[in-house]
User: Fold Probable disease resistance protein At5g66900 isoform X1 from Punica granatum.
Amino acid sequence: MGDLVSGAVVGAVFAELFVVVKAAVKTTILFQSRLRSLESTLQYIKPVIKEIDSLNKLLDSPKEEMKHLHDLLKHGKILVEKSLRVNVNLYKRYRYSLKLADLDDDILKFFQIYIMVIGRDSKEVLVEVKDSRLAIRKLSLMLEDVLNNKGMRSVGAGGFGSCVVPKAPEFVVGLNVSIRQLKKQLLDRGVSLMVVSAPGGCGKTTLVETLCHDEEIKGNFKNNIFFVTVSQSPNFTVMVQNMIHHKGKDVPQIETEQHAIDQLQQLLVEIGKDPILLVLDDVWSESESILEKFWFEEVTDYKILVTSRFDLSAFGPPHKLNPLNDEDARKLFLHSATPKVGSSFRSPSLMKMTDGSVVPRDELIDEIVKRCKGSPLALTVVGKSLCGKHPKIWESTLLEWSEGSFIDTNRAIFDCLQRSLDDLDGMPVYKECFMDLGSFPEDHAIPATALIDMWIELHKLDADGVHAKRILHELAARNLVDLVATKNDESEGDGFYDDLYVRQHDLLRELAIHQNSQGLIHERKRLNLDIRGNKFPGWFTAQDEQPLNAHLLSISTDESFLSDWPHLELLAVEVLVLNFRTKSYTLPIFIKNLVRLKTLIITNNGFFPAELSNLAILGSLPNLKRIRLECIKIPSSDPSDVTLSNLQKASFFMCDLSRGMMAMPNLAEIDIAYCSELERLPTSLCNITSLRKISITSCHNLSLLPDQIGNLFNLQVLRLSSCMNLSGLPESIGRLQNLAFLDISNCFSIGELPKEIGGLCMLKELHMKGCSGLSAVPEAVVNLEQLKYVICDVQRAHLWRPHKDRLPKVTVKIVQDDITLDWLLK
Assistant:
């Protein structure tokens, strides 16, 4: 069987199976869901099979693995053919249905194991085969795409909306006893459901995150750990779809709640060979009934761990998470309040204030810690707000604090957070930006680019977003928000923020909402409208003689909303945030009256892209400059009929753009990410000569750029990163006389650069990390007189050595391109 090491032989067997499956889908009504799922899997791994052939030329891949793949595919072909001959015998139908499902799973599992094996073996031959690591990385990313994109709902590697356990907290105190007790229960076969109860800000989520990263817990539950955030307005169907997607299975359209329950039960039964741990974080009392939908008695060794501000006593006595004791509270406070040195922090005796004066007295530290009532959130936020400041400011803060009264623990924590917010009084724009965060749904990751777009227009900041980004990082430095990057890429050179997200603790969000709700309705700067069912608040429907003065309007609707909007005039609104969870969504008719609207953010929180209708009303908005669509399907009617004359920036994230885009004649920037249906960039974009920036990332099916792209003579930034099927750059790219930044990182299929690239007379920075298909750069690169930086991996760095003498100003920066297989565990 030695010849089976050849990818060509494996490819032939794969092709035979693929043909049989495709024919079966078309010719039989039996096993349709199983066969379609299998067809989907084969469609995704088709390019991977080709890549294995290339990889086998670099590595002596283990014959056992190739033989196993050959046999698996051959067995699959026989199994599918037999399934077509199954008669009306119900038992046989059931058996073959399970066998087809197992075949689907076995194929995916093979590739998970295979990439680990070749990753191991590549270390032994790395010295001899210089491109092996990069070839493996290509295959690794392609396989990641197979597992992550079968359900269409993927944000980076792991992403939000997934069931991946969040990263373990860096600094944890006071949880050892709780971790020990809960771990014992989770490993005890007699315990099925546990509730961790504590007020907000006491560290419930930190506790369960830390627990999920415990080695014994991971060893017991392996890849069957799901981390699901429930929140105040849960969508059970979407949670189930995310769980199915998390296991790399084909995600179905789910029409009813009972269908969702059935799908969840089927999933748990299928994966129940190993123990299962489901973490349901942030369950509210009104959502208590949702726990029953997740429980199935027939699934053995299945644990549900719940966190809640409420006791949920119907499920037994909860595990009470107590506030931190004085010693642990002091440790946590000092960790936040003490200037850092590298990854460690200085003791109080080594603290230096900004003016070099002495540190605060121990008594002052103890009194502030006491006021925080043992709340980890309050200790962290207050500590960060005082970090590096003069002791006199600490004293004045405590003095002002003492004037307030504490009703209960939550009020005390709220008061701590309020004082930290008051610390921004000398920075009014920063405080206003913090208040804007309450306009996004609870427990949702907020795209940093959405915030930046909003702040630029709402607070009249500089158009390039430098000030907005500074505000974002200042809020993070004060622990008022958390910044989470879905990719760890230090090579970005133009301030690219598409892979950065903002998370905010529920209490901080509630603080912002509380601040926004002060005063009369018609005087408020921000209005948040959370519609459940079709119940509008009275102020929304009442025709008040005083006009509403809100500049920021946020509207969230659930899956039962019927899109029956009352008439409303909001003439002052400059930013509109729409969040919904339905399969289709009609834009509110009152939008056409928002004559001052500058930024529009529309997010579908369902699993599949939702069709957006009534798009034409956007054409009547004279000041609309920025629009962001997430998980949206452009309607079937000709989208070019909608003209957004003054739009300057358009962002499409996980959208279906197969039907085209709106007409945007004066666009300056377009951002397209994770749009799997995009195969070719519309030629119409090349007529928008005002375009200065194009960013297309992780659109894996994009294969061609229009030849007319050279018409974009004002283009300064062209990013095409992680577009794995992009075959090359058009010759006309040489006409982009103003292009200063070009990124083709991880575009594996680009085999060569056109010689016309030498015409990029203003190019200063070129990113080409992970371009494994490139074996040379054209001689014409010596004409890039303005080029300063080339960002690439070790293999691509060698390509520039022959031109070093003629490009003396160029710095070739090598970015470490380590292979990571962490995504397999996700």
Remarks:
- The mean pLDDT is 80.
- The CA atoms of residues 180 and 227 lie 20 Å apart.
- DSSP finds 23 helices and 26 strands in the chain.
